[in-house]
């Protein structure tokens, strides 16, 4: 038997040995999860008050099982089933990319360019985190999310129900089954070059969906296809916003310019790396009238 404090320390040590950087922090998150399941809302104040108490045997069993799984490098979010994004709680599983903090920059860049009532298309929607955040914080937006994976769409629809937002999620290979025109298209597509995937950390390489990561030989496959299809789905001045890899700015800007888009802004992430591109469609033939 051990106290909460001893259990967290010991689990932290085990996770660190397994190669997890902030092992003790993950141990605390796992304890929080176990206690939450039992109706206890764990926070620093609770921990301070109760950490010297003996852990209940059932709690301990559940906790050590999760610590073992985390030690096998299963992502924390797959164990708890959720990830916060834009202050909202999203359900996640092994069929969707875990929402990343960097992607919030894309959402913020999109919100800055919206006034209200726009139709928005999110390609490669995954958990739906981008589209649902836009609908949550924007004004009367109409949202469509597309993904090729039926399992990912199940997750996106569950998130939609939990957040009570009116998005429509469609099974579609990019634009294939998408109807209508949009004022804005957003996407955080798979953008990692195939051969780079093998060098990623175990959690990502072995547990996140390959199809959410793999951007083809040069990582740019989805940008090419989306940029080629986008102007036909929007009027002149419609917005196209992407998350990009840190070294893809020049290549994606060139693709955009080739297809008649004008790059408006490239935004860096908190690490100072290029992360988001916002561009406008300057082609006339994409739509029937100017917006
Ligand atoms: N759009 C989702 C996200 O940003 C999924 C992205 C992906 O699967 N590449 O989290």
Describe this protein with a few key phrases.
Release factor glutamine methyltransferase, Rossmann fold, 7-stranded mixed β-sheet, 13 helices, S-adenosyl-L-methionine, transferase, alpha/beta, single chain, 42% helix
Structure overview:
By secondary structure, the protein is α/β, with parallel strands linked by helices. It folds into two domains: 4-72; 83-290, 3-Layer(aba) Sandwich (Rossmann fold). It contains 13 helices and nine strands. Strands 5-4-3-6-7-9-8 form a seven-stranded mixed beta sheet, with helices on both faces. A two-stranded antiparallel ribbon has the order 1-2. Helix 7 (129-137) links the parallel strand 3 and strand 4 (142-147). Helix 2 crosses helix 4 (57-71). Residues 286-291 have low confidence and may be disordered. Bound molecules: glutamine. Glutamine binds at residues 97, 99, 103, 124-127, 129-130, 188-190, 212. Its EC number is 2.1.1.297. Keywords: Methyltransferase, S-adenosyl-L-methionine, Transferase. It catalyses: L-glutaminyl-[peptide chain release factor] + S-adenosyl-L-methionine = N(5)-methyl-L-glutaminyl-[peptide chain release factor] + S-adenosyl-L-homocysteine + H(+).
CATH class of the largest domain: Alpha Beta
Number of helices: 13
| List of distinct ligands in this structure | glutamine
Biggest sheet, spatial arrangement of strands: 5-4-3-6-7-9-8
Termini separation (Å)? 67 Å
- The global form is elongated
Largest sheet: 7 strands, mixed
CATH topology of the largest domain: Rossmann fold
What's the alpha carbon Rg, rounded to whole Å? 21 Å
Main structural class: alpha/beta
Please name the CATH architecture of the largest domain.
Answer: 3-Layer(aba) Sandwich
- Strand fraction equals 15-25%
Structural domains: how many: 2
The helix/strand order is HHHHHEEHEHEHEEHHHHEHEE
CATH superfamily label of the largest domain: Vaccinia Virus protein VP39
- Would you identify the regions where 5 or more consecutive residues have pLDDT less than 50? 286-291
Let me know the average pLDDT: 95
Instruction: Find the count of extended strands (DSSP E, 2+ residues).
Output: 9
**Proportion of residues in helical segments:** 40-55%
Binding site for S-adenosyl-L-methionine: 147, 188
Binding site for substrate: 188-191
GO molecular function, one term: nucleic acid binding
Family: Belongs to the protein N5-glutamine methyltransferase family. PrmC subfamily.
């Amino acid at each position: 038997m051990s106290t909460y404090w001893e259990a967290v320390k010991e689990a932290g040590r085990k996770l660190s040995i397994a190669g997890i950087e902030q092992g003790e922090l993950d141990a605390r998150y796992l304890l929080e999860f176990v206690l939450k399941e039992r109706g206890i809302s764990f926070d620093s104040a609770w921990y301070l008050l109760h950490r010297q108490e003996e852990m209940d045997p059932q709690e301990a069993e559940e906790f050590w099982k999760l610590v073992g799984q985390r030690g096998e490098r299963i992502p924390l979010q797959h164990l708890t089933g959720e990830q916060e994004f834009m202050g909202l709680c999203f359900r996640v599983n092994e069929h969707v990319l875990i929402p990343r903090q960097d992607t919030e920059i894309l959402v913020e860049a999109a919100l800055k360019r919206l006034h209200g009532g726009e139709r928005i298309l999110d390609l490669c929607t995954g958990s739906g985190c981008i589209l649902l955040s836009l609908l949550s914080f924007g004004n009367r937006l109409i949202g469509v999310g597309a993904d090729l994976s039926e399992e990912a769409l199940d997750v996106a629809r569950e998130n939609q129900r939990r957040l009570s937002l009116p998005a429509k999620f469609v099974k579609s290979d990019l634009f294939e089954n998408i109807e209508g025109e949009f004022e804005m298209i957003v996407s955080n597509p798979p953008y990692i070059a195939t051969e780079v995937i093998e060098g990623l950390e175990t959690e990502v390489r072995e547990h996140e969906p390959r199809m959410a990561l793999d951007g083809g030989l040069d990582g740019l496959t989805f940008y090419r296809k989306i940029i080629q299809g986008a102007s036909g789905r929007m009027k002149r001045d419609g917005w196209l916003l992407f998350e990009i890899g840190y070294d893809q700015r020049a290549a994606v800007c060139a693709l955009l310019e080739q297809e008649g888009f004008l790059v408006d802004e490239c935004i860096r992430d908190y690490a100072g790396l290029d992360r988001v591109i916002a561009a406008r469609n300057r082609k006339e033939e994409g739509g029937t009238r100017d917006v």
